[in-house]
Amino acid sequence: MSEIYPPFEPPRRILMGPGPSNVSSRVYRALARPTIGHLDPAFLEMMNQVSDQLRLLFGTANRLTFAVSGTGSAGMETAFVNALEAGDTAIVGVNGVFGQRMCSVAERCGARVVTVEAPWGEPLDVGELIDTWRAHEDARLLAVVHAETSTGVRQPLEELGAALRESETLFVVDAVTSLGGIPVRVDDWGIDICYSGTQKCLSVPPGLAPITFSERALERSRSRGGSVQSWYLDVGMIASYWGAERSYHHTAPINMLYALHEGLRIVLEEGLETRHERHRSLGERLQSGLTERGLELLVAEPYRLPQLTSVRLPDGVDEGAMRRELLDRYGIEVGGGLGPLAGEIWRVGLMGETCRWENVLSFHAALDELLEDNGT
Amino acid sequence: MSEIYPPFEPPRRILMGPGPSNVSSRVYRALARPTIGHLDPAFLEMMNQVSDQLRLLFGTANRLTFAVSGTGSAGMETAFVNALEAGDTAIVGVNGVFGQRMCSVAERCGARVVTVEAPWGEPLDVGELIDTWRAHEDARLLAVVHAETSTGVRQPLEELGAALRESETLFVVDAVTSLGGIPVRVDDWGIDICYSGTQKCLSVPPGLAPITFSERALERSRSRGGSVQSWYLDVGMIASYWGAERSYHHTAPINMLYALHEGLRIVLEEGLETRHERHRSLGERLQSGLTERGLELLVAEPYRLPQLTSVRLPDGVDEGAMRRELLDRYGIEVGGGLGPLAGEIWRVGLMGETCRWENVLSFHAALDELLEDNGT
Fold it and tell me: Which residues carry this modification: N6-(pyridoxal phosphate)lysine (chains A, B) (predicted)?
């Protein structure tokens, strides 16, 4: 490069992909408030408020409830590196990319991974998960994805949590795409470690991973034989910064935490029930519009997420080209398929701020034009 | 909690601690620009520009030059987890908190750590480092901190880099507090992995860790026996997202990257030499003002960082109380001492946007009043 680049001006987009979602102007304003120190008394008080507000969203009384200084995958890694030691058994449900990713993360912790699989687009069989656990009752954890971002499947959790509740096996749940869009009840469902991301149904830019640890999950991390393999994600030390001791660990992403604080206020102002109902009703409207157009949805009704819809494209459509056209002509971003679904589906998000009726209408209208232009 | 918290309004602060530093209004504006997708063609082009601009700052032609999606300590962890495998030897220089942290991170990689130590406030002896390396020529890496944030010591690097250049040992440098404040010349000095943070001399809020890997360092990570123990920080996979393949790995912290892009533009507009000279001359002005007041500086002149000054407090002063008074009455944040220096010193930063003559004058004036009120 020979000269300085011009300022970056992002193009106008409606973010209807699998995340990030659109962000409220209130959150942008919070993000741009003046940076203060990570040990400033005013900042520490704000961190307490973030924890309190996250507890309401997660439905938990867990003391250790905070935001990991990284994106959703850092939340996943935080769950596994703290819960697992080399040689442990981890049972992981796999019906999409994020279940696969959990296996990879668990293997890198030196765990023996036992998988329970289902076809992409279907939920895991809860009975099979429980049977697998009974065959491996010494498993250190059992992990599933609540809302599989690669397919749009909702995984039922209640029965699984009830089965594991009195056991030695920690129940780990990926709520990256569910928190703030559909109910997540950590304490009621007996979840030990639950993590999310900011850029999905919370409508805060990516960069933080809200997470909560039950007392026994925290104790598991603290009482382990060796050190947690990640210094950055070691919750024993992080708990001393987010907790009353306020020991410096690493510099928190200060402005991102301002944004999360404001994003959580917006969620609580709307109310969780109202917010879930908004996602439910507009998701249904999006989906019925697609089936009315003769398009097939990947996921069967009872397991279909309202906030993320996988739709099969008609035969003969060049998925990538049409997705690019949707972006260039209409400014609408949707996601393509991953893995075995690449080229087959679109993933259409209606998360948080994006979940508005005008976006549903715009998407349907743009799709009609594109399908007509493509001769289908 | 029974009601929703009010919006968070940060108090007015002059950030003269060891980081974060003050942030330009241009960077705040960039931070608050509308979020777009992490696979949006416009965003990918901006990532290329961030890499290009970082190469200029690091003084490198390294292809793999990017920003880790975490704070400075995540940069440190990225360096070590990719370079080290269990059983490797790592030589680490320790003369402060961040050298100690490197040991902890290396141990968690299963490495055998050989330390070379110096008293806090003094640089490491380069001859001793080289001798130690000769005694362990099979060492996988030798790591030192360029600007030790816990003491304000500058570590000379050139001779060390020259000694290691033709060897099998990777030269790893922590430039968290140096990049953008004093010269960092990755290629000239033969550094293989160099990482920094955004919230120091780059004056961007915390949340990203700029990093660069030489080809041989990247090759080392790719050709290792087992997987990198961190999925999130595995540069083999991250390189496929930042590189031409653009394979999705994890969702990048989009708005933080907007901010870094703008922060780097500001650095390049000022010019690196001018910027280094500004830090040099104002650091000297701050420091001479302190010695004129009869205060003792921790670090001897040739190794004293201009951007971070450790000053001993007069006997009988309650350091914590006076630091709190400086914050409450004057809105000036400075850092206290860490480890053996707790209660003994203040760490006064003049980094990036904070490095202005009016801040030097304000700090001197506030200090005069506080010392008078404390009867010294």
Answer: 200
Chain B nearest C-alpha distance from A36 (Å)? 7
For the domain that residue B291 is a member of, what is the CATH number?
3.90.1150.10
Rounded-to-integer distance, Cα A95 and Cα B366, Å: 61
Q: Do residues A99 and A65 both lie within one domain?
A: yes
- pLDDT tens sequence across B145-193: 999 999 999 999 999 999 999 899 999 999 999 999 999 999 999 999 9
CB atoms B77 and A229 under 8 Å: no
If one counts the domains in chain B, the total is: 2
**What confidence category does residue A2 fall into, taking pLDDT thresholds of 50, 70 and 90?**
low
Closest-CA distance, A163 to chain B, in angstroms, reads 30
Q: Backbone phi, then psi, for A224, in 5-degree steps?
A: -65, 165
- Determine if the pTM surpasses 0.95: yes
In a domain, A350, yes or no: yes
Note whether A20 contacts B34, CB cutoff 8 Å: no
> What is the C-alpha separation between A62 and B216, in angstroms, rounded?
45
| Chain B residues near residue A40 by CB distance under 8 angstroms | 10-11, 13, 327, 333
Residues B254 and B350 in one domain: no
Query: Among the listed ranges A67-76, A110-119, A133-142, A214-223, which one has the minimum average pLDDT value?
Result: A214-223
Same domain, A312 and A208: no
Contact yes or no for B251 and A5 at CB 8 A: no
Residues B288 and B260 grouped into a single domain: no
Q: Do B231 and A258 touch (CB under 8 A)?
A: no
d(CA B315, CA B219): 53
Tell me the one-letter amino acid at B308. L
Domain with B247 in it: 25-268
Which of the listed residues A237, A268, A299 is the one where a domain comes to its end? A268
Produce one character per residue of B214-243: b if its CB has 16 or more CB atoms within 10 Å, e if not: beebbebbeeeeeebbbbbbbbbbbbebbe
- Same domain? For A32 and A179 the reply is yes
Q: How far apart are CA A283 and CA A122, in angstroms?
A: 18
Contacts of B338 in chain A (CB under 8 A): 248
Percentage of chain A beyond pLDDT 70 is 99
Do residue B246 and residue B117 come from a single domain?
A: yes
Task: Tell me which chain B residues have a C-beta less than 8 angstroms from the C-beta of A248.
Answer: 338
pLDDT at residue B323 greater than cutoff 80: yes
